[in-house]
Each structure stands twice: as structure tokens, then as C-alpha cells.
Amino acid sequence: MTSQPTHHNSDRREILARQGLRLPAATLKQLRDAGIYCQPSVSIEHQYLAKRYVLRGMECGGAIPQLGAYSSFVDEHGNALSWLQRVDSIGFNGVHAVAVAPVLVRLEMVRINRTYDLLITRHFLETSGKSQRPKLESSILFYGRRGNLEMELWGTDAAFCGGVRPVFYTRSGEPIRVPSEFEEAAAKMTEAVCCVGCRHSHLLTPRPIVRGIPDTDAAVVGVAPGTA
Predict the structure, then answer these.
(1) DSSP string, the chain
(2) What is the reported pLDDT for 9?
(3) How confident is the model at residue 11 (pLDDT cuts 50, 70, 90)?
């Protein structure tokens, strides 16, 4: 009699880990009406030159004063990842950058006024049997619902952005701690879901430029012989 609910809960956690926060239709409609685009999907991509598979995800989202949604990535230790490419657009609260790596830790946060949900998940590739294409494996590292932060980071308390985050509790009222290695990233996510009209990346960082080593991703326009 107890095996069915357990199996059902396991399936729900697997879907949550793979696809991200499951939001009510009313919340999704509000996000669409507000022009906030937040797509937390993780895909498997093949690098033909390197002959390997990697994971790809997008940093995206933003806010209006009443609500916000944001998704981004860090490495397994909570450190910032360098973006593959920054995405500039005329609009706001959309896609800001793209990340590619063998392992991704995704942070997804949704804010309704001063109430926050935070989901942290780990994604990696696992080879399966004789298949050359690996399988995407996902697991939940932290899931906090209806956390509170009694500050208007999108307004009068904007000076505290990046240094505070909501507090989450169990049903019995005990605090749930965000894993220490992801506390800084969680604070940046809190800033991101309060960033009204967001046009920039909050977690992914520019790719480092090493002197003397050309950027192989840059397109070089050659000069025809005799025209210099």
C-alpha cells in the first residue's frame, strides 16, 4: 500500500530535477504577460572537433516589481562558469548568456513579491551500455519553497542586492540551509529575480583572455595579397 506513493514521489523528484520548477498556470501566464523569459532546460550537445558530448544551458530571466524568474549555472563547487557566448538583444528579461560544460549545476529561482522558491540541481553525462550517446543524469541538491525576504531589493533596499537571500523553512518551522558552496550563487540569484528590466548576466562571467593566445572562436578576416 505504501509503495505506490513512494514511487510517485520518486517520479516527481526526477521530473523536478530534470525539468526544473513546476509552476502553476496562473504564474506562467503572469510571467508571459510581464515579458519574462526563463527557460531552465539542459540539453546534450556533441562537439565534433573535440569528439565529445557536453551539456548546454542558458542564463535567462529577469523581473518586474511584482515578480521575477531566473535560471543560471555554476560549477560543482559553486564557482562561476565562463559563458560560451553573451547574448545581447533589444528586449529585456530574456536570454543573457549560454554555458557549455561536461557538468552543470543549475540554479532556478522564482519570486512572487517577497516570497521565493529556489531549486538547485546537478546535471552530468552518464554512458549507457553500448550506446555512443550518453544519458543525461540529474539530481536535486536543494529545494526550498516559499522562502521569505522582507526587503524590496527592486526598490528601497536595492543597496543590499547580491548580499542577501531568502530564508527557507521545513513544514515544522525549522530552517533549511542552502549548501554552503552555493550560498553566494543563491544571493546572486536573489538579486537576479529582483533585477527589473534585466539586460545582463548575474552568474555567468566573461571568458578569460590569455595574452599571446589567439581566441580560436574569433572570426579572422584575411587581407588579400597585394592589397595591404
Answers:
(1) --HHHHHHHHHHHHHHHHH-----HHHHHHHHHHT------EEEEEETTTTEEEEEEEEEEEEETTEEEEEEEE-TTSPBPBPSEE---SSSSSEEEEEEESEEEEEEEEEETTEEEEEEEEEEEE--TT-SSPEEEEEEEEEEEEEE--S-TTTTTGGGTTS---BEE-TTS-EEPPPGGGHHHHHHHHHHTT-BT--S-SS-BPPP--TTS--TTS------TT--
(2) 74
(3) confident
